[in-house]
Amino acid sequence: MSRVFLSSLLSAGVGGAAEAEIVSDPSAFSYRPGDVVLGFGTNVIASDAGVSGRVLLMRNSGVSIVGEYVRAESGTPLSYVARRACEAGLGGLEWATGIPGSAGGAVVTNAGAFGGETGEFVRSVSVMTERGERVVTADALKFSYRSVSGLPEGAVTRVVFGLHADDPVKLFARAEEYARKRRASQPAGRSAGSTFLAVGGKSAGYYIDRAGLKGCRIGGVRVSEKHANFILTDRGAKAADWRALADSIKLKVYSVFGVKLKEEVRYIGEFT
Fold first, then answer.
1. Backbone angles phi, psi at 259, to 5 degrees
2. How many CB atoms within 10 Å of residue 3?
3. Which of 56, 83, 162, 210 is most buried when burial is the number of CB atoms within 10 A of its CB?
4. Torsion of CA 100, 103, 108, 113, to 10 degrees
5. Angle CA(69)–CA(98)–CA(180) in degrees, nearest 5?
6. 199-205: long-range contacts (C-beta < 8 A, 24 or more apart)?
């Protein structure tokens, strides 16, 4: 375990130091209550003061396929899982092509795009708890918009997806179309992905754009001109600036539309 700056590990590029442990073998680590568990940190904002507890970085990776079931270690990129499924002629995860997160993170956040959601295809989830590893089947889980309930406290170690047979050529064509749409609509640069959850059937970007906030800046962070639900970070940006801009966006949108936005990102560490 070593002390590292979280800004070097998280996609947003902000955050102070923490004691971090890389987990490449789920059988060789123990979970302690209070541990902060991260996949690729693609939707996480860490405090400038860092995190006082231990941070577990799930880097276990690997995919195996039996019949219509795909077993993925939690640290495997979700986009890689989707590609392997397409190669095997298994459909369901094409929408995940290009998503930057991990398989484990996708379960915890019920990641989704283009009408598809992770929870629709999960058949079981293995979780390392303080008392050892538990396998939770899909019937014990309740997936909702960008969340899941029923998982015990701990670190997700692997996921089993149940997919359906389809033509690999058609699957790759759909996957490429989703990836093309993602490239066309989302900005380049460092970010934590979508900042706010959709509200009332409309994307948060709809309200942020119409509130005139594209390009709005605080310190080293700014609202993307291309997609209003993305906050981009420049070199030297601070987590405090990021949080301040997010709060400013929420206040402005509420004052204009009476709509309360809620962050899709996860804050870790202490924010004042």
1. -105, 130
2. 10
3. 56
4. 50
5. 120
6. 199/259, 199/260, 199/261, 199/262, 200/259, 203/229, 204/228, 204/229, 204/253, 204/261, 205/229
Q: How many CB atoms neighbour CB 191 within 10 A?
A: 25
Phi, psi of 220 (to 5 degrees): -95, 15
pLDDT band at 88 (very low <50, low <70, confident <90, very high): very high
Dihedral sign of CA atoms 231, 188, 41, 18 in order:
negative
Q: Which residue out of 59, 146, 190, 222 is catalytically annotated?
A: 146
- In the three-class reduction of DSSP (H, G, I as helix; E, B as strand; rest coil), residue 150 is classed as coil
Residue length, the chain? 272
CA distance 148 to 16: 28
Per the rule left: phi > 0, alpha: psi between -120 and 50, beta: everything else, 254 is alpha
Contact 85, 167 (CB under 8 A): no
| Residue 264 annotated among the catalytic residues of the structure | yes
Indicate the pLDDT class of residue 27, thresholds 50, 70 and 90: confident
Maximum Cα interatomic distance, the chain, rounded to a whole number of Å: 53
Contact yes or no for 221/231 (Cβ under 8 A): yes
Question: What is the bridge-based pairing of β-strands 54-58 and 17-23?
Answer: parallel
d(C-alpha 171, C-alpha 87), whole Å: 8
Give tens-digit pLDDT for 139-149.
Answer: 999 999 999 99
Residue 146 is a catalytic residue: yes
Q: What is the pLDDT of residues 236-250, one digit of tens each?
A: 899 999 999 999 999
Contact between 224 and 232 (Cβ < 8 Å):
yes
